[in-house]
Design a protein that fits this description.
Layout: H1 2-30, H2 42-45, H3 52-61, H4 69-77, H5 85-94, H6 96-111, H7 117-141, H8 149-171, H9 177-184, H10 186-205, H11 209-230, E1 237-238, E2 241-242, H12 248-253, H13 259-286, E3 291-293, E4 303-305, H14 306-330, H15 336-357, H16 362-390, H17 396-416, H18 418-425
Antiparallel strand pairs: 1-2, 3-4
């Protein structure tokens, strides 16, 4: 009797699973983007972490590090000063990263609409490979001084990032929040490896900076190979369940179910990106002499070689950025009030860090930038977690695209206004060890 009852229950469970599978496949065929997990989020919450997503993110975002101290090394290789017409051309060329990110983060849903989102990840990786290959090959190895390489390289990197960030985060959403928390930590890890490890090798052993550029190039094929190991198929299926995304037109028609609720997160993202993309380049161009006075521009008692100053700066940045993204995923944020409190904390860190950086004191700048970056990393965790939990899963890609696209407007403003922010930091004028007009090493 017990055995018979067990068989009946088992048959019922099997029929329910078959029914769910059929419904999932039907949803995929109809293009609705619905999945059987939409009513059972526990199937995603229980997913074990795919830690190799961290390495993929680290490798690809390595190309983004060209906007950091590496852009100053590139400028030095081309004998370009921090001020003047050519210096301004270089700054605006680097800003193409932000323009490219902004354009493709949303436009990819139209321009690449006929391409599965998993394939788009590979497309973005290809663009990144070409973009990061240009400086070490043509400028450092072949010795070309043609300034056209700069907008071409940074433009391709921007186009790649705009596609990659949205699609990669959307593609790995079915792998669960544990995987997502590992993936978003790859962003600061990329900057940490290049600017801390690479910077230390350059400072301590006089390693040619071109080797750092070649390291970034070598990382791109690694990212492709690792992504192939855990990527869903072209229909974006994981374990037989369909997570197909709705088209942009369908998401816009259904805007009431997701658009309004992410507006506060989009607005905070604008300021967060502005701070991140303006403060760091402004700091690089402020402390641009061979040495940095840690207690102020006129206090020469404690000084540090600029290369080591930047290494310590990126230790603060990496620690703040990685910890904030991990900490952000530790909070539940299960109510609207808690999410808004998280956004308020982000704003506080960004504003306070930005203002503290304006004092132009070397040692204080480490803490100031760390605070600002902690806010930006926390913002990434709060927003990505909210989109995965509160936005209908079929509109996941549209929500990420809009959140990033509008947020990148702040990044564009930050990149374009780097010289203005630098002028704010250098309000006391040119100093012997700070705010000098030339590009120094």
């Amino acid at each position: 009797m017990a055995k018979s009852t067990m068989q009946v229950k088992l048959t019922a469970v099997q029929e329910r699973d078959i029914s769910s599978s059929v419904l999932s496949d039907e949803g995929s065929d109809s293009g609705s983007g619905d999945s059987s997990c939409d009513d059972d989020d526990s199937c995603i919450e229980r997913q074990p972490p795919v830690r190799s997503a961290f390495i993929v993110m680290t490798c690809v975002i390595g190309g983004y590090t060209l906007i950091g101290p590496l852009q100053h090394d590139l400028k030095h290789e081309l004998h370009i000063q921090d001020t003047g017409l050519v210096g301004s051309y270089f700054t605006q060329s680097v800003a193409l990263v932000q323009w490219g990110k902004t354009f493709t983060s949303l436009a990819q849903n139209v321009l690449l609409g006929c391409i599965p989102i998993v394939t788009r990840v590979y497309v973005s990786m290809g663009l990144m490979f070409v973009g990061v290959l240009i400086p070490p090959l043509f400028i450092f190895t072949l010795g070309s001084k043609w300034l056209g390489w700069i907008p071409l390289s940074y433009g391709l990197i921007g186009l790649s990032l705009g596609v990659f960030e949205c699609t990669f985060l959307s593609v790995i959403s079915p792998l669960g929040p544990k995987t997502k928390s590992w993936a978003i930590m790859g962003f600061p890890a990329a900057f940490g490896i290049v600017n801390i490890v690479g910077g230390s090798l350059v400072a301590a052993f006089e390693m040619p900076v071109a080797w750092t550029f070649w390291y970034i190039v070598a990382c791109q094929p690694v990212a492709v190979m690792l992504f192939r190991r855990f990527a869903p198929d072209e229909q974006n299926k994981v374990d037989g369940r369909s997570y197909k995304q709705a088209g942009l037109r369908q998401s816009l028609r259904d805007w009431r179910s997701w658009l309004l609720r992410i507006i506060p997160f989009v607005l905070v993202n604008i300021l967060s990106h502005f701070v991140m993309e303006s403060v760091l380049p402004a700091v690089f161009n402020t402390f641009n002499a061979k040495e940095v006075m840690l207690l102020g521009p006129t206090d020469t008692r404690i000084r540090m070689k600029k290369t080591w100053f930047l290494v310590v700066l990126f230790v603060f940045i990496a620690a703040a950025d990685m910890s904030s993204r991990r900490i952000g995923y530790c909070f539940r944020f299960d109510t609207t009030a808690k999410n808004y409190a998280g956004l308020l904390f982000v704003l506080s860190c960004n504003v306070f860090g930005l203002n503290l950086s304006s004092f132009g004191i070397g040692a204080l700048t480490w803490f100031a930038v760390g605070i600002a970056i902690f806010g930006s990393g926390f913002n990434y965790a709060v927003c990505s977690k909210y989109i995965d939990q509160r936005v209908p899963r079929k509109h996941n890609l549209a929500a990420y695209s809009l959140w990033m696209c509008v947020g990148y407007l702040g990044a564009i403003a930050g990149a374009v206004l780097v010289d203005v922010v630098r002028g704010w930091f250098c309000s006391e004028g040119v100093q012997e060890y700070q705010c000098t007009p030339g590009s120094h090493h």
